Amino acid sequence: MTLALKNVRKSFGGLCAVSDVTFTVPERSIFGLIGPNGAGKTTVFNLITGVYPFDTGSITLGGKSLANLKSAAIAEAGIARTFQNIRLFSQLTVLENLLVACELQKRAHLLAALLRSPSHYEDESSMTKRAFEMLDVFSLRELAHAPSTSLSYGNQRRLEIARAMMLSPKVLLLDEPAAGMNYGEAEGLKTQVRWLRDTFNLTVVLVEHNMQVVMGVCEEIHVLDHGETIAHGSPEAIRSHPAVIGAYLGEDTEGGAA
Amino acid sequence: MAGRTWIRTIVLALLVAAVSLALDMKLADILTDGSLRQLLMLTACNVLVAVSLNVINGMAGQFSIGHAGFIGLGAYTAAVVASQLHVKLGSHAPTLAASFIVVPIALLAAAVVAGAFGFLLGLPSLRLKGDYLAIVTLGFAEIFRLLIATATVGVQDTPAQAWSAVRGPGTFFHALGVSITALGGQNGYAGPGDQGVPLYAGPFWILTIVTLMVVLAWRIKFSGWGRALRALREDEIASAAVGVDPTRYKVTSFVLAAVGAGVAGGLLAMMRDGTPSVQPDTFNFQASFDAITMVILGGSGSVTGAMLGGVFVTLSIKAIEYGQGSSFVQDLRRHAEWLDLNALRMILYSALLIALMILRPEGLLGERELFQKKRGAKAS
């Protein structure tokens, strides 16, 4: 499904964090959202996932508006995400972190759990089976019963992606997945992102500072600076775009809007 | 596997029912001291108080400090319903047979009223992040208590007359005032004509209901629902991002906690060997604080921990009351007037809680349970 933002705007008090952002993420593409620090990239993610409401404009997924939907409903609609500063459920085990993401797909709910009805047990075992399959995908099976905080940084990042994938999303938003990774790990991430897209028929949106990853994996890139769009295009076009170079290197350029 | 569990559940349920039925008939012979029987039943009710508060405070991590308000709502509702039914049944001395009519209806009413108020309070305050729930629940419990303790209307009409005369907002609030005044104010509610609240809830009802509620709390904890609550406690934004709607889960848990408290209050009001009246001051802030102490001492999030906390706090309160009444302490008081053990109790609990926060901040059991099954997939 196509994720589309149209003239989206968000201010916090007098500060305009995102102004008039418009872009369309083609289905099954790997889409990069980049820009210098404070450009409003994470804010855009937070607006898409309903962490806070946007002021004006529209955000649609497959033509369906996401305005006024709460985060949980947006997750249900098919958008999953990871966070810039990893947000795992730290007191829960690796497996439990994945199982929480299954709540939406459960057929049986609170009453079934209270009565311990057959559907409760069926849900639990099918959820656990799915969670273990997902752990296999991310090579985390051995750590299933470890507390999530005991994982290494790289594994925590992977667990976060695995947790998001448990929602069987149509669009996956990754917020700086390569942060803190070395060259080799970043190369691995590129392969993994492509593999995820191909295997699960996903659309991937990437907020990333690591240019090795962005230029290597993204098919289309949207550049923000101070909450405004300054460029949009293929990696090749973005690499040589004067406004982008200006924004990153701090040069004074004129007329960057593309 | 599910089938075998069902059979085991039914066998266990019958066993609990049989044991409590036997106790219902024979407890007066085993424990001839009425105050000991009362203490036993009170302990069971407080276990329910602690276990229900644990659902919202421990599992969901939302700090509710007005649990006494819901206990009080349940107590007054059950007392009124039981008294009315008692009169309809002919005002005979409460029998076990008659209790099968009175107790379920009274407890259901208590649960519904407490749950409804839980929903009304929880919906606005749990939508917001932060400590709003603490402020709202504290305010609610005190308003509830003071409203009943101080309500007076000048006119001498009965609630029935006042309600039948309702023609608009003015007469509606008059009828409401008359009804609250009929709850006896500061003197407490003792049934119509002050004949006393009928004490229908013997050991059978108290033990079976408390057991049932403990089992339900356990099942909440060890289910997807409980897992989602723990996730929510860790990180609301991340929970919402994986489809766990914070408001829905928090409000539902809060309502469940209120229902548990309402049932506990109902049992307390109708408790055999208890006092045949419901006093507003039973549900003061100290009662809420005692409930919090039970949960924190035992370990936030642990069902068995809350049970241990409930037992400990109830017994220690009684031990202190007993000590206060002893001739030794009374003798000492002649020389040292400040020696009021009941007042010193709060100092004792505070010191205990501070020591606990330093030595074992997660409480006695933390989130663990006694007798926890070693099944990695389910428990932490």
Overall description:
The complex is a heterodimer of chains A (about 260) and B (about 375). With about 260 residues, chain A is α/β, with parallel strands linked by helices. Chain A folds into two domains: about 1-80 and about 170-260, Rossmann fold, CATH 3.40.50.300; about 90-165, no CATH class. In chain A, about 40% of the residues lie in helices and about 25% in strands. Chain A is built from ten helices and ten strands. Chain A has helices at about 40-50, 70-75, 95-100, 110-115, 120-135, 155-165, 185-200, 210-215, 235-240, 240-250, and strands at about 5-10, 15-25, 30-35, 55-60, 65, 80, 170-175, 205, 220-225, 230-235. In chain A, strand 4 and strand 5 form a beta hairpin. The two termini of chain A are about 25 Å apart. In chain B, about 70% of the residues lie in helices and about 0% in strands. Chain B has helices at about 1-30, 35-60, 65-90, 95-125, 130-150, 160-165, 170-180, 205-220, 225-235, 235-240, 245-270, 285-300, 305-325, 325-335, 340-360. In chain B, helix 1 runs antiparallel to helix 8, helix 2 (about 35-60) runs parallel beside helix 8 (about 205-220) and helix 4 packs antiparallel against helix 11. Classes of the chains: A alpha/beta (about 260), B mainly alpha (about 375). The interface of A and B includes residues 109, 124 and 166 of A.
Descriptive labels:
heterodimer, A: 258 residues, alpha/beta, 4-stranded antiparallel sheet, 10 helices, 10 strands, B: 380 residues, mainly alpha, 15 helices, 72% helix
